[in-house]
Amino acid sequence: MKTLVLTSSFKRAFKRLVRRQPELQERIQERLALLVVDPFDPLLQTHKLKGKLSGAWACSVEYDCRIVFNFVENPESGEEEILLIDVGTHDEVY
């Protein structure tokens, strides 16, 4: 099980998205719980990104909602963590 680390940009994007579409909050939280347990669960459709986001990963919340993240190592514990970068529609995050 991995630890989630939320960036300030992710928190802002999450608040903005939930303000516009409150019904997504529960769905995003479910996907984040699944991401912690198994980042490559088929439901998440996890994929590596190219271009300006090269090296980052994304997973699907629903048809037009994505979570962008990176796998990082905690310098203190050496454990792998998931650094949440952005959340939003396909066009917003890419």
Written description of the protein model:
This protein is of the alpha+beta class and 94 residues long. It has a single domain, classed as RelE-like (YaeB-like fold, 2-Layer Sandwich). The protein is 33% helix and 32% strand. It contains 3 helices and 5 strands; from the N terminus they run E-H-H-E-E-E-E-H. It has helices at residues 8-20, 24-37, 90-93; strands spanning 3-6, 47-48, 57-62, 65-73, 80-88. It has a 5-stranded mixed sheet with strand order 1-5-4-3-2. The longest helix is centred in the first third of the chain and has 14 residues, at 24-37. The protein is globular. This is Plasmid stabilization system. Pfam families: YafQ_toxin. It comes from Tolypothrix tenuis PCC 7101. Keywords: Toxin-antitoxin system.
Report the mean per-residue pLDDT as an integer: 96
* The top level CATH class name: Alpha Beta
How much β-strand is present in the residues?
Answer: 25-35%
Distance between the termini: 27 Å
CATH superfamily: RelE-like
Strand order of the largest sheet: 1-5-4-3-2
- Strand count, sense and closure of the main sheet? 5 strands, mixed
Structural class: alpha+beta
**Would you report the number of β strands?**
5
The helix content is 25-40%
CATH architecture: 2-Layer Sandwich
Protein name: Plasmid stabilization system
Keywords: Toxin-antitoxin system
InterPro entries: RelE/ParE_toxin, RelE/ParE_toxin_dom_sf, Toxin_YafQ-like
